[in-house]
Amino acid sequence: MADDDDVDQDALAAEWGMEEDEAEADGDGSEDNSNFDDDVAAQWAAMIDEGEEEEIAIERGGADRILNQEEIDGLLGFQLDERGGDTSGIRAIVESGLISYERLPMLEIVFDRLVRLMTTSLRNFTSDNVEVSLDSISSIRFGDYLNSIPLPAILSVFKVEEWDNYGLFTVNSSLIYSIVDVLLGGRRSANTMRVEGRPYTTIETALVEQLLEVVLDDVRAAFEPLAPVKFTLDRLETNPRFAVISRPENASILVKLRIDMEDRGGRIELILPYATLEPIRELLVQMFVGEKFGQDTIWESHLATELWSTQIAIDAVLDEQKISLHELMNLKVGQTFMLNTTPDATIDLRCGGVSLADGKMGRVGDKISVRVEKGMTESVLRLAAAHALTAGATELPVPK
Q1: Are 131 and 70 in contact (CB under 8 A)?
Q2: In Å, what is the CA distance from 217 to each residue of 108, 197, 209, 231, 350?
Q3: 214 SS3 class
Q4: Which of 47, 300, 322, 378 has a CA 20 to 30 Å removed from the CA of 29?
Q5: Which range is least confidently modeled, 53-57, 286-290, 384-388?
Q6: Is the pTM of this model over 0.85?
Q7: How far is residue 13 CA from its own chain's centroid?
Q8: CA 47 – CA 37 distance, rounded (Å)
Q9: CA distance 282 to 284
Q10: Which CATH class is domain 297-388?
């Protein structure tokens, strides 16, 4: 029994020793935890101080704030994914001198007419169901447009004979291969096979040239209500550097047309420098065809009607003599002035100093009359009316 008590006491002593060791270990961990809590508190205090400094900086105007790339692009107004669209920011200020196509309202009417004409003519040209739509009309600098042309493409330079200047058509590769397939009986597929890295063949160039001849004839017909004009195909180019028809900084009108032939098609773009449209600028600023600024057709008709009932004085000249100023000043009341004429002499009828007709003097009742012997011509009537009527009349009626 004594031996068993010794064993139990030794076991209890060992257990108490282990508990003391664990307690000491727990004491060391509490010290580490206290150190960790101090570090976290210090970090929170630093973050609070930084937040307060940022709020103070923002209140002072945000001088330390850095703009990201999107904000910088928005401030400058330059966007790479837009071509010929609306600009803003610094770019809008720089391009403020660029003339907007909206100042030429007649252009929209002309190009709407062009869409209708092209739809009909291209259906006859391809014997297919063709739909032509107007994507957009915008103003762009000529150099910016050349730099944004997606290659490969065919550029057609045409000359406007009456305006003595040039324009440019751009046909993209999708439309080129679609026209080749349609005219040569290719398969109908939305995915047009493109062979990149080679120039266009003679057949492809010839077919595109025929297409452009049809389109140029439609452009002529679209402008015909405004002014008779003829568009002549000058040359075809594949390098934009060889299709320069204007200075890079000159403003131009860009018209984007979409041509769909069921499951295939492409885009054709027309660019006209403002220098080309300058000869008909006065016609393009009209709101509708035939508009006349500062004129009223109703007032013109009323004026023409009133001119026929205008009272004018006609002088019957019996004789003309040349006398000196001394003799004229010495004429007295009752003095007789002799005329070199006879009762059957010819009388000259005048209006405003212009001779109208010749006649014979006679008498009708108690009044002296003149019978017209030689009629009045149209040119004489115009000249007499111009002298007799007011100077504000711009057009005089022509007698029938």
Answers
A1: no
A2: 18, 32, 12, 7, 56
A3: helix
A4: 47
A5: 53-57
A6: no
A7: 104
A8: 15
A9: 6
A10: mainly beta
**Residue at token pair 């769909």:** 260
Q: Element (H or E) spanning 21, and its range?
A: helix 2-59
Q: What percent of the chain has pLDDT over 70?
A: 64
Residue 358: name the closest of 394, 393, 317 by CA.
317
What residues form DSSP beta bridges with 172? Answer: 153
Sheet holding 367-374, edge to edge: 315-317, 346-351, 354-364, 367-374
User: In the 8-state DSSP scheme, what is residue 86?
Assistant: -
Alpha-carbon gap, residue 131 to 129, rounded angstroms: 7
CA angle, residues 341, 373, 321, in degrees to nearest 5? 25
Share of the chain above pLDDT 90, in %: 16
Pick from 139, 144, 138: which is nearest to 98 by CA?
Answer: 139
If you ran DSSP here, which 8-state letter would residue 136 be given?
E
Q: Is 155 exposed, middle or buried (0-12, 13-18, 19+ CB in 10 A)?
A: buried
Domain 101-284, what architecture? Answer: 3-Layer(aba) Sandwich (3.40)
Q: Specify which residues 154 forms β-bridges with.
A: 171
CB 178 within 8 A of CB 261: yes
- How many Å apart are CA 134 and CA 154, to the nearest integer? 20
CB-facing half-sphere around the CA of 36: CA atoms within 13 A: 6
Please report which helix (H) or strand (E) contains residue 350, including its range: strand 346-351
Closest CA to 259 of 187, 201, 370, 182: 182
Pick left, alpha or beta for residue 65 (phi over 0 → left; psi -120 to 50 → alpha; otherwise beta).
beta
Where along the chain do its domains lie? Answer: 70-97, 101-284, 297-388
Q: Is 195 exposed, middle or buried (0-12, 13-18, 19+ CB in 10 A)?
A: exposed
Strand partners, 153: 172
Residue 80, amino acid: L
Nearest of 168, 139, 191, 339 to residue 240 by alpha carbon: 168
Structure tokens, 118: 């092209």
CA distance 195 to 152: 10
Instruction: State the residue for tokens 């405004």.
Output: 226
* C-alpha distances out from residue 278 to 10, 112, 176, 252, Å: 117, 21, 32, 11
The DSSP symbol for 105 reads T
Could you tell me the two tokens for 60?
């002072």
Highest mean pLDDT among 68-77, 115-124, 242-251: 115-124
